[in-house]
Design goal:
This protein is an alpha/beta fold and 361 residues long. Helices cover 46% and strands 16% of the residues. The protein folds into two domains: 172 residues, 3-Layer(aba) Sandwich (Rossmann fold); 166 residues, Glycogen Phosphorylase B (Rossmann fold). The protein contains 14 helices and twelve strands. Strand 5, helix 7 and strand 6 form a beta-alpha-beta unit. Helix 3 runs parallel beside helix 4 and helix 8 packs across helix 12. One of its GO terms (molecular function) is glycosyltransferase activity.
Length: 361
């Protein structure tokens, strides 16, 4: 009996970022073996030579799979800019071989990428979406955005997914609340607004605590403008309460999450951040912004949302969560329950299985 096959193409599973995190989660699900998934890496972190070499090797591997191990479905994990062009070439090849294509859009700024692109790139984007067998969007808000680009495309909402964990523990009476930022350090993720808000929050609540005691500590983990963040922390006199780690290996992220009680990710634009889902899955209270696909993940019943760039409201929200143990625990517990109900990887992999079987005919 011939085994059913799926061919996935994405960034390397060792690459930084949410796409790699999502693929790693799915690689641990039954769909990986049920569909004999072969994964092709078309990108990885490194210098231009490494990136070009990775794509060249991935392209050869992809064509080999199409010719000699013909898949039943091709699943392309696509984002903006370079990711789009790499996956569009693979899309054209899969269409040439008449293999059904699932285009899975992950880019936080994919709609802006479309708007800012020249007409020929916009045509290619519409062509990619319209001629996909199905387009996967990360939630209802992204279905609307992608439908505006390609009204005739078949677009379905399938959120990112995680595996629920045991809830984290809250700090003791004399221990600081640990707030974590996890993502690319920069303006889009709201890192510098968070540092400004942190300084304002400590100035506001510091007098409520005994001399020399820091009520909360902030850890900033991620690549990007790390040195700029460190300089701002020092300029604000926050070195005692803020630790800027920079990038950390993916296999250390779960351990870091288990030490925190709050995730702060006040982004200006997002797809559907795996950092938020992973934090919810551990029972952290999430403080973020109502942008992109974030509102498909949390609302006021299981998180805190403040307008992006509003330092005063962000500082007030931080102060509330640091002060109020009950609110922090209640929101974190509700977030974990929401993961179990709506974002459990053991449930969501079955949606891809259903799509594949439909496309297989």
């Amino acid at each position: 009996m011939t085994r059913q096959r799926a061919l996935w193409a994405s960034t390397s599973m060792s690459t930084r970022g949410g796409v790699a995190s999502f693929v790693r989660v799915m690689a641990g699900m039954p769909i990986w073996s049920d569909w004999n998934v072969h994964h092709v890496a078309t990108h990885r972190d490194g210098n231009p030579t490494v990136k070009v070499g990775t794509f060249a090797a991935g392209l050869v591997n992809f064509v080999f799979q199409l010719i000699f191990r013909r898949p039943d479905v091709v699943h392309l994990h696509m984002a903006s800019y370079g990711s789009f062009f790499r996956k569009y070439l693979l899309h054209l090849l899969a269409r040439l071989f008449r293999v059904p294509v699932v285009v899975h859009i992950h880019g936080a700024e994919f709609d802006l990428f479309y708007e800012k692109s020249p007409r020929w790139v916009q045509w290619a984007i519409r062509d990619s979406l319209t001629h996909a067998s199905v387009v996967v969007a990360l939630g209802r808000s992204w279905v609307a955005r992608l439908s505006a680009i390609a009204p005739t495309a078949r677009i379905v909402a399938v959120p990112n997914s995680v595996q629920a964990q045991a809830p984290i523990t809250q700090p003791g009476a004399d221990e600081p609340v640990h707030v974590l930022f996890l993502g690319r350090v920069g303006d889009r993720k709201g890192t510098f607004a968070l540092i400004e808000a942190w300084a304002a929050m400590l100035a506001d609540i510091g007098t409520e605590y005994s001399a020399g005691r820091i009520p909360a500590r902030l850890t900033i983990a991620g690549d990007g403008e790390v040195e700029r963040a460190r300089a701002l922390v020092t300029a604000k006199g926050l070195d005692d309460s803020v630790d800027v780690l920079g990038w950390i290996p993916s296999d250390t992220v779960p351990q870091l999450l288990r030490t925190a009680q709050v995730l702060a990710l006040p982004s200006h634009n997002e797809g559907q951040p795996m950092a938020i889902l992973e934090s919810m899955a551990n029972g952290l209270c999430v403080l973020s912004s109502p942008v992109g696909g974030i509102t498909d993940l949390i609302d006021e019943t299981c998180g805190v949302l403040v307008p992006p760039g509003d330092v005063d409201k962000l500082a007030a929200a931080l102060g509330w969560l640091v002060r109020d143990d009950d609110a922090r625990t209640r929101l974190g517990s509700a977030a974990l329950q929401r993961v179990r109900e709506d974002f459990d990887a053991d449930v969501l992999w079955r949606k891809f299985d259903e799509l594949y079987r439909e496309l297989q005919g």
